[in-house]
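FORM 7B: Structural annotation worksheet

SECTION A. Query
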Amino acid sequence: MKYWILSILLPVVVIAYPLAVQAVGSVVVEPSDHSLQITGWLGEESALVGNLRLTAQSENIEKIVFLTSDLRRKEGGETINRQQIAIAGELKLSAGIPQDFQVRISNISLPGTYEGKVQIFLPNQSQQPVETIAVEVIAKVRPNLIPLGDTEQVQLHLVNCDGLLGWFDCAIAKGLLPASAFLNQWELQFDNPTQAPVTIIDSKVILKGEQTGYQLTTQALSLPQGTITLASDRIMSLPLNVNRSVIPPDRYVGAIYFTLAGQTQRLVIPVDLKIRSGPILPLMVLIFGVLLGRLFKYMQESGGDTTRAIKAVYRLKARIRKEVEHTADQKILEKMIDWVEQLIRWEKIDKAFAEMDAIESRLEALSKLREIENQLMEMKNKSNLGEMLQDLQNNIAKTRVFIAQKNDVAANKLIQAVMKDLANLHYKMNVNNGLILNEPFLPLELASSINNSLIQADALSPQDLPDPSNWEVRVQDFLVLISGVSDDVRIGATVLIIRPFLSLTLLVGLSLVGLGSLYVDNGVTFGSRPFSDYLGLILWGISADVASRNISSLQSRNRDNNSNLN
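SECTION B. Predicted structure
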């Protein structure tokens, strides 16, 4: 009986096993889906979605069971729980008809690559899955590089002081401008709030000058070259290198462009760069403008008279060189000219003109004295009045000495004595049977003309006091030193110390005010328009002379007080 039952069951088992195997292998997975890869961007989609295509080969399958494993992150070991994985679609297959199933992974928090598997089971089959599909989920995040506050726009006010006399130019600039004007590097600070590193694959700085149209190159502004990777969830900085010495003065407007891996739009940081030239040249131009303004004022008040006096001196010098042949007479007159030039330097113009008129009278007197001497030399060879002629020559020489001393009164008295002697000489010569004809006596006429010239010279320029000797000067200086009440001290201090000090203080003060107003405060791009910038300094310096009128009034009063001493 037992053998009969086994003989019946054994064929049934043999027949049923191939049918079971055929049922297990009846679900076919699309070849491209044997390793399912799902890719997506975090934050842009609610879930990452992939598609799985299955086909029943021989018969309809009424129900399919999907079992998913946890997905483990390769980069750090974090997992996506299997409850976050959902497979949507009708869970049955019709024989020979492919059907797609949607695999959805939701609530992914960290970017990275996750790996796991999906197993397919058929009901009423063995515990072994009919198919096992490897699943790889690549969760990506868009780069999100955020410039930190106060760095989302770069604004720089710099100075280029590396030209001629650069060390001196920069030394002055450091005393006028803040330290930020001398930066050679600016830190661009960024926040990467994402959990993935950000890769900068390219960076460009594009700036163009508003006034000059000059475009800056990488020699002027540069960023680190090559691919730059910024770590995730970090605040970091990139250096923007600035070569101030090659940037012409101007305002440069543009931007820095960053190309990020995985980002369709570039990160743009606006840049506003203002650079000015060094202060040494503006300061020199400003001082020139102040001096030019004071020169205009000087020419308006007294410069015209001074110029006219100097021209008269030049004409008088030319006349002396032309008309006076004797070297001794030239030296006498040139010494007088030196005194006239000193009067001009003291701005005593009227006295200088009077002195020049007196010099012209003395010039005529000296020239005629030479003519008289020549006449007497001829007479000395033709007459026996040698002693009288010698006395006349001695008196003429003494007259020349008095003229050299500008003692016109003494010279006039002596020339009158010469005139009497010439009259006696003329009489004796007439008595001597006509050594000369009975006609006007030329030496006497010349002496009369000299007399008139000396009278005119004395009226124009009275005799100056003789210079004190050295020991007298030393005694006077000692008395002034111990007394301290001399008017000379007060006048000397006013002229030689106070006036130059006030003038220098005014010059420096006006220059600093103008430099601060036109260069430091309002000259962030000074030098980009050289004509208007430097012309503005010159005009400011000229107009700034209005501020010096109090000093000028004081100087005028000093001149008036000094003129009372003449």
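SECTION C. Observations
The chain has four domains: 2-140, 146-278, 324-460, 471-563. The domain at 146-278 is CATH 2.60.40.10 (Immunoglobulin-like).

SECTION D. Sign-off
Analyst initials: ____
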